[in-house]
Structure formats: C-alpha cells, structure tokens
Amino acid sequence: MTIQAYRAPHAVQINGELHKAGTVFHADPSQVQVGDKWEKVTEAQAASIEASTNHVPDDADLEALPKTALQAVAYLRHVPGIAALDTDGLKTAIRASYEPKL
C-alpha cells in the first residue's frame, strides 16, 4: 500500500471526503481509480501547494479584542516590541506576522 499525493483540476471525493479543485489530496492508487486529469505531486510540491492554499486566519477577531489580549496574541506570534505598540499597531503587527517570511 503506497499513498501518493495528487492534485486535480476538479473536485474529487475519496473515501467520503471531498477535496476542492486544485488542492492536494492523498490516495492509494491500488485502492482508487486514478483520474485521467490527476497530477501526481511530490511531498515537497504537496507541502508548497497546501501552504499556498491554506486559509489565513480572519482579521475580524482582532477587532473585538482589548489591548491586553492583542498583546498576548502578538507575543504568541513572536512580534517584537509589543510594549511600545498601541491597539492599531498591535493589530497591524499581528496581521503582518501571518504573512510568509521571505
């Protein structure tokens, strides 16, 4: 039994789980009929695709938080210099911490 990572240009249902078009899914080719348009991807490619299609947490939750809670979130996100930031600065820094690092 060899599990392989795939990506398809259309929605795919495997073992009762629906995978959206373009997302990575894993299947055992000996147990499922591989579709003609399925693209076999390596684990490194799968990780890259999943990272690029993962949903970034919504910002709406930040709007309702008081400053102390924002400082706690910023601390957990490893934002530097949180003590000097006001509420809007904390929100901006937290949002920026979700951006990919180059």
Textual characterization of the structure:
By secondary structure, this protein is α+β, with helices and mostly antiparallel strands. It has two domains: about 5-55, no CATH class; about 60-95, no CATH class. It contains four helices and five strands, in the order E-E-E-E-E-H-H-H-H. It has a three-stranded antiparallel beta sheet with strand order 4-1-5, covered by helices on one side. A two-stranded antiparallel ribbon has the order 2-3. Strand 2 and strand 3 form a beta hairpin. Helix 3 (about 65-75) packs parallel to helix 4. The chain starts with a strand and ends in a 5-residue tail after the last helix. The model has no long low-confidence stretch (mean pLDDT about 85).
Map the helices and strands.
Blueprint: E1 4-7, E2 12-14, E3 17-19, E4 24-27, E5 39-41, H1 43-53, H2 60-63, H3 67-76, H4 87-97
Antiparallel strand pairs: 1-4, 1-5, 2-3
Helix pairs in contact: 3-4
